[in-house]
Amino acid sequence: MLFRKAKISDIETIHKLITYFAEKDLMLARSRSSLYECLREFTVAEINSEIVGVGSLHIIWEDLAEIRALAVDEKYQKLGIGRGLVEAFLAEAIDLEIPNIFALTYQAPFFERCGFSIIDKEDLPQKVWKECINCPKFPKCEEVAVFKVLKI
Q1: How distant is the alpha carbon of residue 115 from its chain centre?
Q2: Closest Cα partner for 147 from 107, 112, 97, 109?
Q3: What is the three-state SS of 23-71?
Q4: Beta carbons of 148 and 117 less than 8 angstroms apart
Q5: What is the mean pLDDT of the chain?
Q6: The pTM is what?
Q7: Do 148 and 89 contact (CB within 8 A), yes or no?
Q8: Distance, CA of 138 to chain centre
Q9: Which of 7-21, 49-63, 126-140 has the lowest mean pLDDT?
Q10: Which residues touch 13 (CB under 8 Å, ≥6 apart)?
């Protein structure tokens, strides 16, 4: 398995994977435009040159980053790919000296197994007012906030 930063040629595959889970209401959809704009944030997981997982690390503030758009192809789930992506993002946050990382997710138990704790979404004011207020699911969002403090 290979974890690497995404390339322009990966966009359609990333979009297809995210859209698949968004249509099942398991994550938020992402437009192609937003994927191109945020390409440098994305990491993909490959097996035999096939993209089987994706996610991104988005910097919110000097001390806060978010794991976004984490998805693993159903055929490859339960193989540690999601955990590997999370570990890659945690390492990236440490390299960037960002001490706090969070995610808004429908899969809180997965993140808890990765060492995150559930917190109240209200504890993330930058996120709520910067991003969430424009979401079509706001204010009736059912995502759970998970948070982890990193040792920098």
Answers
A1: 15
A2: 112
A3: HCCCCCCCCHHHHHHCHHHEEEEEECCEEEEEEEEEEEECCEEEEEEEE
A4: yes
A5: 92
A6: 0.92
A7: no
A8: 19
A9: 126-140
A10: 44, 51
